[in-house]
Design goal:
single chain, 431 residues, alpha+beta, Rossmann fold, eleven-stranded mixed β-sheet, 9 helices, 20% helix, elongated, binds S-adenosylmethionine
Length: 431
C-alpha cells in the first residue's frame, strides 16, 4: 500500500503467476555503443537462447569482438529474458555503467494489451486476473528501477487501461499520477471492431516521487514556427500577444494590482509606463469594453517596455488602441503538450511498420512509432540519463534513446524477436 492508502483487489491477487507467465532471467544479448562510434564496435554476446524457463538463466558469455582492445563505452544493452527479472542481470549491466536499479529516469512498459490476439511471437490472451497480476509484478519492478526523479510510462488501450490505472494508483500513489494521455494509433480506425472503430491508445504517466520528479514542461518540436509570422529588426520571428489578460476571471475586482494605465503611440508603436507628449493613455479592456487587467505588473512593464508595442485594433465596439507583447521565437523555446497526441505528430502503427520495413526488418506487427518514443524520451529524460524498456519488442525505445544520446537497457522475452528484429534493426548482427 502507498502513502495515500489506496488499495485494489481482484480474485487471485497475490497468488503465484501461472506456469509460463514468468520467463527466464534476462541475459545480455548485445552491448551497443552510442551513435557515431566506429561501426563494428558493438560487443556481441552469445546469440539469444531459446526461452526455456529458468534454465536459460546463466552468466551471459560476453565476448568482445576484439579482446585485445580496451573496454569501450557502451550506451545501451539488449537483454533477452523476462523484464520482471531484470535485476538479476544487474551485476553484468553495472560493469558497463548500465545498472538500472534505482537509477532509471524513464521506465517504459508496452506490454501485450490482453485483447485476445496472437501476434508474431507473443500471445495476448491471458485470463484477465492473471494478466493484471502479471502487470502488477512489472509495475513493482519498474518502481524499484526508477530514480527518485524518474517517471514510469505505461502504454495500453481501453481494454485494460482503467484497471491498470487503479493498480498504478496503488503502486505509485494517487499523488504520483501525472497524466493519462490519449495517443492516436490508427487514424482510420479499426473497422473490424464491433461498435466503434478503435483509433487510440492510452499512455499513463506516474512519478516515482511527486516531490522530486523531473519532467519537461514541453518540447521544442511542439513549437510551430508558423505561429510566429512577424520578423523583427534582429531577424528573429515573433508573434503579437495581447498584454491584456484574456481570462475573464481576472478583472480589476479580482486582481486590482494589475490594472493601471499604460501610454502608447499607435503610429510608432512606442509604449511607456509614464505619460509623455504624443502618447495616449490606455487601460486594459475586453472586446465589449468592460474593464480588464494586464498580464504584467507595472514593474515588469517598465523593465521590458521595449518588448511592448502599441497598435490600433478593430474591435467589436469599433477601433481602439491596445498594447501587445512581441513574443519571440527564440532558440530553446518549448511548448507545453496537450494530453491528446495525434498521429500526425507522433506517427501511427502504420508509420511504425513502415519504419521497420525501412530498417530492413519485417515480421513484427505491433511496433510503436519512433517519433512517439522520441517525444516520450525527450520529455522525461536528459542526455546521458538511463531509459529502461521492459517489453522491448522491435526495439523502438532503443532506437530513439540511442538517437537522443541517452543510455538504455531494453528487455525482450522472445529470443526470435531479439535475433530477427531487434538486433538487425539496431545494426547489431548476431554471431
Ligand atoms: C506490444 S509489444 C512491444 C512493442 C514495442 N514497444 C515496439 O515498439 O516494438 C510487447 C512485447 O513484449 C514482449 N513480452 C511479453 N512478455 C514479456 C516479458 N515478461 N518480458 C519481456 N518482454 C515480454 C512480447 O514478446 C512483445 O515483443
Amino acid at each position: 500500500m502507498n502513502s495515500s492508502g489506496f488499495t485494489v483487489t481482484w480474485p487471485g491477487r497475490g497468488e503465484p503467476e501461472p506456469p509460463g507467465a514468468h520467463g527466464p532471467a534476462p541475459v545480455i544479448s548485445a552491448l551497443v555503443p552510442p551513435l557515431g562510434a566506429a561501426s563494428g564496435d558493438s560487443t556481441l554476446v552469445e546469440p539469444p537462447r531459446a526461452a526455456s524457463g529458468d534454465s536459460a538463466a546463466g552468466k551471459p558469455g560476453v565476448r568482445p569482438r576484439d579482446e585485445a582492445c580496451e573496454p569501450r563505452p557502451y550506451s545501451g544493452a539488449v537483454l533477452v529474458g523476462d523484464g520482471a527479472r531484470i535485476a538479476e542481470a544487474r551485476a553484468d549491466l553495472e560493469s558497463h555503467g548500465l545498472d538500472p536499479v534505482g537509477l532509471a529516469q524513464l521506465v517504459y512498459l508496452d506490454p501485450p494489451y490482453n485483447r485476445g490476439g496472437s501476434f508474431d511471437g507473443y500471445h495476448d490472451n491471458m485470463p484477465r486476473h492473471s494478466w493484471l497480476g502479471y502487470i502488477e509484478t512489472r509495475l513493482l519492478v519498474a518502481r524499484e528501477l526508477l530514480a527518485e526523479t524518474g517517471t514510469v510510462w505505461v502504454h495500453l488501450d481501453d481494454a485494460e487501461a482503467h484497471r491498470v490505472r487503479c493498480v498504478l494508483d496503488e503502486v505509485f500513489g494517487v499523488e504520483g499520477f501525472i497524466a493519462d494521455l490519449t495517443v492516436e494509433s490508427n487514424p482510420k480506425g479499426r473497422q473490424l471492431d464491433r461498435f466503434f472503430a478503435g483509433s487510440h491508445d492510452r499512455l499513463m504517466v506516474y512519478a516515482r516521487d511527486p516531490e522530486k520528479v523531473q519532467l519537461s514542461g514541453g518540447i521544442a518540436a511542439a513549437v510551430d514556427p508558423g505561429d510566429f509570422p512577424h520578423v523583427g529588426a534582429d531577424g528573429v520571428n515573433f508573434r503579437l500577444l495581447p498584454l491584456r489578460n484574456t481570462n475573464k476571471r481576472f478583472n480589476p475586482r479580482t486582481t486590482p494590482t494589475m490594472t493601471y494605465p499604460l501610454y502608447g503611440d499607435p503610429e510608432s508603436g512606442t509604449v511607456s509606463v509614464d505619460p509623455a507628449p504624443g502618447l495616449v493613455e490606455i487601460l486594459p479592456v475586453f472586446g465589449d469594453l468592460s474593464p480588464a487587467v494586464w498580464r504584467w505588473s507595472r514593474d515588469r512593464a517598465r523593465e521590458r517596455a521595449d518588448e511592448l508595442v502599441c497598435r490600433t485594433v478593430r474591435g467589436r465596439s469599433g477601433p481602439r488602441v491596445d498594447i501587445y507583447q512581441r513574443d519571440r521565437h527564440e532558440a530553446g523555446r518549448i511548448k507545453k503538450l496537450k494530453s491528446i497526441w495525434l498521429a500526425q505528430e507522433v506517427g501511427s502503427t502504420d508509420t511504425a511498420r513502415a519504419e521497420l520495413r525501412a530498417a530492413g526488418v519485417d515480421g513484427f506487427r505491433t511496433p510503436k512509432p519512433e517519433s512517439l518514443m522520441r517525444r516520450v524520451i525527450e520529455l522525461s529524460t536528459a542526455p546521458g540519463d538511463l531509459v529502461v524498456d521492459l517489453f522491448a519488442g522491435s526495439g523502438t525505445t532503443a532506437v530513439a534513446a540511442r538517437e537522443l544520446g541517452r543510455r538504455w537497457v531494453v528487455t525482450e522475452r522472445n529470443p526470435d524477436t531479439v535475433r530477427n528484429v531487434l538486433l538487425p534493426r539496431l545494426g547489431v548482427s548476431g554471431a
